[in-house]
Amino acid sequence: MNNNAIELAHEVFAKANVCSSWQRPVSIGAIIWQQLLKTPVAMISFWIIFTLVLISLLSFLGLAITPYAFDQTSADILQGPSATHLMGTDELGRDLLSRIIYGSRLSISIGLITALTAFIIGTTYGAIAGFCGGKIDSLLMRGVDIAYSLPDLLVMILIGVLVGRGTQGILIALGLVSWMGTARLVRAELLQLQHEEFIDAAKTAGQNSVWIILKHLLPNAVGPIIVAVTFAVPSAILSESTLSFIGLGLSPPECSWGTLALDGWHSLRTHPHLIFFPSLFIFITVLSFNLFGDALRDAFDPKSRNL
Amino acid sequence: MFWLIIKRIFSALIVLWIVATITFVLVRIVPGGPFDADKNLPPQIIANLKAKYHLDKSVSEQYVLYLARLAKGDLGVSYKYVNRSVNDILKDAFPVSCQLGLLGLVFAIVFGIALGTIAAVNRGSTLDTLAMIKVTLGISLPSFVIGALLIFVFGIQFKILPVGLWESPYHMILPALTLAASPAAYLARLTRSSILEIIQKDWVRTARCKGLSFWQTIIKHVLRNALVPIVTVLGPLTAILITGSFVVEFIYAIPGMGRFFITAVTNRDYDLIIGTTLVFGLILIIANTIVDIVYVMLNPKMQIEG
Amino acid sequence: MGASLVKALVNIFNKFIAFVFCLYLLTACTQIKPSFEKDTLRINIGSEPPSLDWHVAVDSTSFDVVSNLMTGLTQYRPDLSCAPACAKNWEVLDKGKRYIFHLREDIFWSDGKRLTAHDFCYGWLRMLNPNTAAQYAYFLYDIENAFEFNTGKIKDESLVGVKALDDNTLEVKLKKPAAYFINLTAICPSYPMRKDIIEKWQDKWTDVEHMVVNGPFLLSRWEHEYKIELSANPNYFEGKPKLKKIKMFMIPEQATAFALYENNQLDFIDNRSFATPDVYRYKSSPEYLNVPLLRNNYIGFNVLKMPFADARIRQAISMAIDRSIFPLILRRNELPTSSWIPPSLSGYSKNSGFVYDVNKAKSLLAQAGYPSGKNFPKVSLLFPTREDTKLVMEAIQDQLKRNLNINIELVNQEWKVYLATLRRDAPPMFRSSWGADYPDPETFMNLFTSYSGNNDTSWKNTQYDKLIERAEAEQNSKLRAVLYARADRLLCHDQAVIAPTYLSTQNAMVKPWVHGIALNALDLQFFKTVTIDNEFKSGDK
């Protein structure tokens, strides 16, 4: 009994602390940024992501940063890595490094945009369900069940037919399937936080619902949100290759990391470079996103700041 | 609780009906029909086929016919696997996928939670970094590559596990590992993140002050409260795993249900598409209902409407 | 409490180690298998046969199983000519319009009943019955009134030109002479069928316990989506096969099937189990086999779409493709070809297609109004996403860009969407292929007649139609070959409606203890003559 009271007191005190910290004149963004600057891992992963984005932007502008054109064929087919072709060549004698760099422009942008879509739609949907609860929650969650159940492939083929090939089609298709997980996570977190004392306090203080969600609820659910969003990146990069397969994605000879991996995996035992290098790039990208996500989560957590 | 379940059964029927209806419409508006083939058939033969499967009737008539059969629990017939009913096909295939999926789920939960807890407890250390690299490998490699690597290492190089096929329990190990790779990674990341969230709460410190050992605190108090996001993910994950994965069943030659999610669509096998979709939907609803019940058990303050 | 917990944990840990150890031992045991199973052939058929009912089946997987269960009026020799089987001989009467088949009297179904001409008659009428909805019913459309019966225009099946004159004599009347007709009596759609069995079991008659056959093997086990087992038929009219059992696995993934072959768990694998890179690794192995198939691949032009209404442009493109690159990128000894009839069939001529000639192609393109590719519209080339097609399309795109300076947009679609697009409104260029149903040029040439349902080019040419009709009715094989060669040149050279690219090949690996595997150009696999060397020792290699 006594213990419980102490616990409760501790908790309320801690929450009050958190709340008061939001009201400081220094903006939350600045605090987080300062926090990130202090963590070397965050900075390394940030710079890797930055470089990758830069490379993909450059190839969007058509600047020649690759040793060869991505579709330039040659007689040197299926060569292993060498001085002339750092990552070897494929079945048509095209330079793999150039193709990977060219492919980054689609893969990186798809990864980022899908993650963003998953974040915005998923968080909004989940927040409404979790905050309102009751009938609305029930209705919205049955909507998620329906969206989960519909056969993805069929939906994607249809989008391909309706929208035609090209980036919009890919984005719509991937956006449509990526938000449900985030929505369910956010909803669960909010249902749990709903009845914590500090929320009741905010409610009785007459604060506006949107304000409560944005300022009090979401920051406390930031951990799972970041995990879900960083996971949307690799799954979008890889799913894009499936889309190419059903004719929704890229028009050959264009390529992405996903299609390179899909085309290369049968050569695992004969020409491993065809699967190794595309996978390596996906791996590095995903690792950077995860590490950066971790650092971001830590920066959001007021108590781990002094660790 | 009782009313929750009653309400859920009722809403499940509505959800399944909506799913069946949308899929019913989707399969019919997607270009390409069940009898389009490499060698084009004369129109008269197509007419015979359509008459046999009642596809010559108007869409609304077909819909009424379909619902009437569905109400009796009859999911229809396959156009591709001639003379086999969808019920028969799913009756053969589902138990296989279910067994494999459950093992995969166990692997995912055990590895995921263990890895996540170790990473969180040893945060910032080499162990944490190693766990992070494993996790990243699990998600950034497509499952067909993971499968091919496992087959190569365990099946061909060391020859300690079967390459594929479905003969004995040992044949389940590699496919279940492949199945578990990505979900385990997801669960590990979630576990790590939510444990870190909870571990700094003041009542955890209080619990330690009460004299509980470190691991007792983690298991008794922290994990229990960190479980909400994990359980949330487990709902859809269970449904996905036990209805089978196309890639895993394809790579390991397993006679499961997962491959129908793709092949039924590519064959435009209408009833089979709706059948697999409904089975998936049903299991998803059951799993999510259990998840909602578990929420209340974990945290009695959570209120969930039916 | 702490101590007991530790004890319990240690206990669990020990048990776990013991379990893992046992598991390891057991897996080690299960893996140490003999390299082969006695008198058993283990193969991979890739996927579930959609149906074993040979009147309903349409795909090669089903036919691979059925053609080892059944025997027709005739059967293929290894060189694909027709040999007598259930029919001991036959007469061709009325200038090729009437066939009389005389049946052997010593052939029995697997349940002991004798095979009669009535079984053939019933089978063919069942195939043509609209209620069966058999997709390959059109194979029998050459028979008098078959088309009318199948489309419901006549209801009386006795009007159809197939009749059992007595138990041992079958009469077939054709509506017009068809020189290729005898080939049809060797393939699955024309196999006999038992009326009593069908009526008794209906849809379930292909179940293991009900199925009745007359071929070298019996269906003994069918685990859907996993495995089919056949066992030797002791009553087979050519004598019980030496092979006691065939295990047909359905392993969809090539790499897995190949790994199983390497681990001695499969004895024979073909294209279905063979990813291109693996072909490359094993090309010099004595276990490797390779034969060209009667499957031709081509780029088709939609002659109604600009700019392909102009034959010169089609010719220029066909001429500017260096076909020698295909075997280099596909690496399965593909046979480059620029004519439509494959070299192994009558009617093939070297002069039917083009030789690679960039300069001539350039001048043709210039004559058509596009000097050095200037102002040539960007045309799309449609292809389905299947196996290696993407690489071939990329190579063609690259060559046309380099040789003629024209840009092709590659458009790939999911298989069924591709089929729907092709049939509704074919794009200017598309990739397609055709596999022979029987070894006769007719199966290829009929495709581009104006009345063919598979002619996606919109090309209609009365001269071509007439050539084909004359060739079909021609009984003199030399004259027939000349007619087909002339039509082929019209199709691939003068009009260049299609640009054939290469002939596919069958690639296979056979373990050294398996004897008697013979591949043929139709990709039909017969296992009745296969034997397993039970004395084989792994050192014998």
Report on the architecture of this protein.
The complex is a heterotrimer of chains A (307), B (306) and C (541). Chain A has 307 residues and is an all-alpha fold. Chain A folds into 2 domains: 1-28; 38-304, MetI-like fold. Chain A has 12 helices and no strands. In chain A, helix 2 (28-38) crosses helix 12, helix 4 runs parallel beside helix 7 (167-193) and helix 4 (96-132) packs across helix 10. The two termini of chain A are 31 Å apart. By secondary structure, chain B is mainly alpha-helical. Chain B has a single domain, classed as Orthogonal Bundle (MetI-like fold). Chain C has 541 residues and is an alpha+beta fold. In chain C, strand 4 (87-93) and strand 5 (98-103) form a beta hairpin. Chain C has helices at residues 2-31, 60-69, 117-128, 146-150, 181-184, 195-201, 254-262, 276-282, 311-319, 326-330, 358-367, 389-404, 415-425, 441-445, 462-473, 477-494, and strands at 40-44, 74-76, 82-84, 87-93, 98-103, 162-166, 169-173, 217-223, 227-232, 245-249, 268-269, 288-301, 335-336, 379-384, 408-413, 429-435, 498-510, 514-515, 531-532. In chain C, the strands form 5 sheets. In chain C, strands 11, 12, 13, 14, 15, 16 and 17 form a 7-stranded mixed β-sheet that branches. Chain C has a 4-stranded mixed β-sheet with strand order 1-10-9-8, with no helix packed on it. Chain C is built from 16 helices and 19 strands. The radius of gyration of chain C is 27 Å and the shape is globular. Chain C is 31% helix and 20% strand. Chains in contact: A-B, A-C, B-C. Chains B and C meet through helix 2, helix 4, helix 6 and helix 11 of B and helix 1, helix 7 and helix 13 of C.
